[in-house]
Amino acid sequence: MSKGSIKFRIPSTATKGEIIEIRTIIEHPMITGLQKNKKTGKKIPRDIINKFVCTFNGKTVMTSHWETAVSANPYLAFPLRATESGKIEMKWFDDDGKVYSASANITVS
To answer: Per-residue pLDDT tens for 17-32?
Structure first.
């Protein structure tokens, strides 16, 4: 995995009303801004993923704001009630302004 590399697990099918689990992990160093460069003694600038957003058919179903206490390569798992077929989209936002994204379709019957 390189910085921004995403792995996730979302079921491709579910029955209507079923609660599914969405699991994600993204490779990111999550630099707190508290460490110092050993050679120069200067602080290494903070570089963390500070926000995660998941949408289902364009509607926000999960938002999470992160701070420096989140470990490197953050893992996140959360439930979602499958009410209809559609697209699940996930986005991670970091301090550098980069946006990492992944998506999957789910068929609900």
So the answer is: 999 999 999 999 999 9
- Give the chain's domains with CATH numbers: 6-108 (2.60.40.10)
**Closest CA relative to residue 46, chosen from 28, 64, 59, 62:** 28
- Whether the model clears a pTM of 0.85, i.e. scores above it, the answer is yes
**Pairing outcome for strands 75-81 and 59-65:** unpaired
Within 8 A by CB and 6+ apart from 96, the residues are 47
Q: How confident is the model at residue 2 (pLDDT cuts 50, 70, 90)?
A: low
The span from the CA of 73 to the CA of 95, in Å, is 15
